[in-house]
Amino acid sequence: MATLDWDSARNEVHLAASEAKLIPLRQKPSETDGATLAAPLTALTPLPAFDTSSVDGYAVRGPGPWRLTGRILAGQTASEIETGCAIEVATGAMVPRGLDAIVRLEDATVTGDKVTGTPRDKPEWRRVGEESELDEELLPAGTPVTPAVIGMAATAGYDTIEVRPKPRAAVLVFGDELASEGKPGNGRVRDALGPMMPNLLRRAGAAPVPGFCPRGPIEDNLDSHIAVLRAALDDADIVCTTGGTMHGPVDHLHPALTALGAKYVVNTVAVRPGFPMLVASLPGQRFVAGLPGNPQSAVVALASLVVPLIAGLSGRVLPPLPRVQLAADIPGRGPDTHLALVRQDATGLAHPLPHTGSSMLRGLASAVGFAVVEPGESGKAGQSVRLLPLPGGAG
User: Fold this and answer.
1) Is the dihedral of CA 243, 246, 251, 255 positive or negative?
2) Sorting pLDDT into bands at 50, 70 and 90, what band is 302?
3) Is the dihedral angle over the CA atoms 300, 301, 304, 309 positive or is it negative?
4) For position 372, what pLDDT does the model report?
């Protein structure tokens, strides 16, 4: 399979995942945070459903002074107000029919049963349908569910909404050289991806699978790779593997994928760092994302391919990348896209970071994302370039 340019690889992965997007389900709005609307959210009633006072005060009709005849609190039903009368209303209460104005509590004087005061120029109540009409689309399908969306659904009268759940994700860490605890040394290095990747996936919109996020280090032999991949795919929509994406003597991912009947969506990408990244589809509409073993390259692969994979499975569009202005020059990488770690200052300028080798995490820990230097180009100070955000990156 030919190496793809970086933009094409992202689009191919998103398209493949969109064709396999997760089956919708219905849930209470409060249970859907982080999911994606599978159907448009429409208004089940006009919003507001009745004329509603936006202040504490007195609904009046006709010229003042007015005779105080009652009170309407939030949750109570209002009737018609008579000319020359005032009815005390609370914020959020239904206003009486026939009112001319509402005099704010702080602008009113009450003496006995008489109310005097001057209404303000702007009406002090919200009219039926002011926010939306009956059946008006409030939010389209594909909208990520946030706490504000949950509140909107409840306001609109929904007891359940139709959503696509978060894709379930597993992380498999390959490598006999990895240690899960203690200080590195004597030929062994500390596993950084096992602790890091599940949190990146969570911030990217996936749901880590218990017991498989992470699992490893996995022994460097083909049988172990096949067995753990098969087990993870029983529960996960996306399995992210770290290491083994090349064709060295202990790189068993490719033959394991062949044994499992996988088909490549992307196999190597013209990007630096992280070019030996891959995504493969498997029966049952499952995917394996092969991430390189070096930490920074693995994060490049996750941000480049796994984020579009999550978006497609969730039924979300792949949004255009934001842009930043470079504070300094960044060299290009010849015919490949160069993803350069940057931090942003208080003015929004993007500063290239040091310590950006494929195996280094020091620069990554301070980064907001990667400046995208296009193939055949170099980044120049003052230039506007695309930014590939790092899920949960530094501010």
Assistant:
1) positive
2) very high
3) negative
4) 98
pLDDT tens track for 271-295: 999 899 999 999 999 999 999 988 8
- DSSP readout, 78-128? P-BPPTTEEEEE-TTPBPPBT--EEEEGGGEEEETTEEEE---SS--EEPT
Question: Which tokens go with 73?
Answer: 């609190």
Domain assignments of the chain as residue spans, ordered by start: 4-22+166-314, 32-46+136-164, 52-126, 323-389
- CA distance linking residue 298 with residue 273, whole number of Å: 9
Q: What is the DSSP letter of 219?
A: P
pLDDT at residue 350 tops 90: yes
Q: What is the pLDDT of residue 358?
A: 66
Q: How far apart are CA 89 and CA 280, in angstroms?
A: 63
Of 347, 304, 302, 303, nearest to 326 by C-alpha is 347
Task: Note the pLDDT tens digit of each residue in 80-107.
Answer: 999 999 999 999 999 999 999 999 999 9
Measured distance CA(358)–CA(351) in Å, rounded:
18
Topology, domain 323-389: Beta-clip (2.40.340)
- Are 49 and 125 a contacting pair, CB within 8 Å? no
Can you read off the two tokens belonging to residue 133? 């009409």
Q: Does domain 52-126 have CATH number 2.170.190.11?
A: yes
